[in-house]
Amino acid sequence: MKPNHRRCLSCRKVGLKNEFWRIVRVFESGQVQLDEGMGRSAYICPNPNCLSAAQKKNRLGRSLRASVPETLYQTLWQRLVQSNFQNQIEF
Question: What are the φ and ψ backbone dihedral angles of 17, each rounded to 5 degrees?
Fold first, then answer.
């Protein structure tokens, strides 16, 4: 079975699906959420540069064709801080 590749909506890097965060506009409700649900999806690198550019230029909103709540960006920033903290502990 072929591996699933995705592209970051900010830096346009192509990689395996599990290397990115998935943001979904859920079909029917139109709610924007992280990681789960069926609907229109966008992928972003867990990288501060990609996240800040996506937030500043509304790339998630344009890609999902929906307004992205500020709380979602806050959650992504928290994930980024936690993942960086985890990486520091491993070294």
Answer: -55, -40
